[in-house]
Structures are given as structure tokens and as C-alpha cells.
Amino acid sequence: MATFGGRRRNDNPALPPGQHLTESFPVLSAGPTPSIDPEKWEFFIHTETGYTHRWNWTQFLALPSESITVDIHCVTSWSKLGTGWRGVSMDTLFAEVETGFDFVMAHSYGGYTTNLPLEEILDGRAWIAYEYDGEALDPEHGGPARLLVPHRYFWKSAKWVRGLVLQREDKPGFWEEYGYNLHGDPWREERYS
Ligand SMILES: Nc1nc2c(c(=O)[nH]1)N[C@H]1C(S)=C(S)[C@@H](COP(=O)(O)O)O[C@H]1N2
Ligand SMILES: [Mo]
Q1: Looking at domain 40-188, which of 3.40.50.720, 3.90.420.10, 3.10.50.40, 3.40.50.300 is its CATH number?
Q2: Across residues 171-177, what is the average pLDDT?
Q3: φ/ψ bin of 168: left (φ > 0), alpha (ψ from -120 to 50), beta (otherwise)
Q4: Hey, which of 159, 161, 164 would you mutate to test ligand 1's pocket, going by the most ligand atoms within 8 Å of its Cβ?
Q5: Nearest CA to ligand 1 atom 1
Q6: Over 90: is that where the pLDDT of 177 sits?
């Protein structure tokens, strides 16, 4: 492959360096798929004020949702272009949230975690998605609902997301503890730390 500035190039301008296209939708999970009863499901945002914002499944589905078409990029080097989702924007969820902290840790049912800067999940750049390709999100892809942060490597898109905890400082989540990059920008090829 041709190199440019030390980075691997590919011919498709939609593909970040070192990525290749896939038509399939691989499943990558560090553990078993948790079974989640929508009756007991909740999404929360916990801030330093001690206040926890909570939505149950009915309240969550009543929020304004958006149809989202985005490219996704896995650190294992597959990319999938033009994936279609439905979800609730983080801007909607954060509308009433007051915080002075700049980072979040996403927590999932099953124990997975991943860290993100708050500003990078606002302004129409991240969602809690609950439909894929017009259907309810498949459990193995994170159903009933997952984080969708398409501008970061896909490990940041926590499946079975349960809530966000605001934190003052950036801390590594599950894969970041194992050496994945804290930030994970595919265009800068921030794969490992
Ligand atoms: N809860 C949870 N979320 C997760 C993971 C996981 O193991 N557990 N894997 C991450 C990784 S490494 C990737 S590439 C994507 C894979 O999503 P997919 O299985 O829908 O392709 O989910 C991310 N979110
Ligand atoms: Mo991944």
C-alpha cells in the first residue's frame, strides 16, 4: 500500500487511514450479551451535584428521536459506510443537565465502560440508538439501546448502555485500560496509547 506522511492510504476518501470496507456487520463483544428486560431498563446521567437524571424505557421512547446515517470505523480495521440508525441525540438528553465537569464515563449493562470528553458527544455528534436499519436494535449489537459515537473508533459506542457518569478528569474505560487510545480518533489513527 502507498504511504503518505507515514500513514497508510486507501483510495476511498470516506475511509480513514488503515481501514478497509466491510459489507457485513461483525459482532465484537468482550463478554456475553446481557439480557435486558425493557421493564427494568433505564438510562441515567449522574453529575457531580449528586443529582441523577433518569429515563425509563417509556420515557426514553417518548423523547424526540432522529434518523441517523453515519460511517462506522472499528479499530480492528473494518469500516462500514452509510449505516442507518434511529436514536435520541445526546443534546436532548443533556438539555436539563448542569455540570462543570468535562468528561464522561459510559457504563453498560454487563460492566463495560468507555471514556469520552463531554464536548465530543454534544452538538449532534452522538446518540443513544435503539433501531438499526429500520428494526429494533439486535441484542448482539447492543439492543435495546447503545451509544453511537461515529466520529470515534467503534469501541467508544458502548453497547447495552446504561448511563453516563460525569467526571472531572479523563480516565480509561475497559479497552482503554488494555492499551486502546484514550481519545480514539480514526482520522488521526489513534488506535493505541
Ligand atoms: N458493552 C459493550 N459495548 C461494546 C463492546 C463490548 O464488548 N461491550 N465492544 C466495543 C467494540 S470493540 C466494538 S468494535 C463495537 C462493536 O459493535 P458491534 O458488535 O455492534 O459491531 O462495540 C463496542 N461496544
Ligand atoms: Mo472494536
Answers
A1: 3.90.420.10
A2: 98
A3: alpha
A4: 159
A5: 159
A6: yes
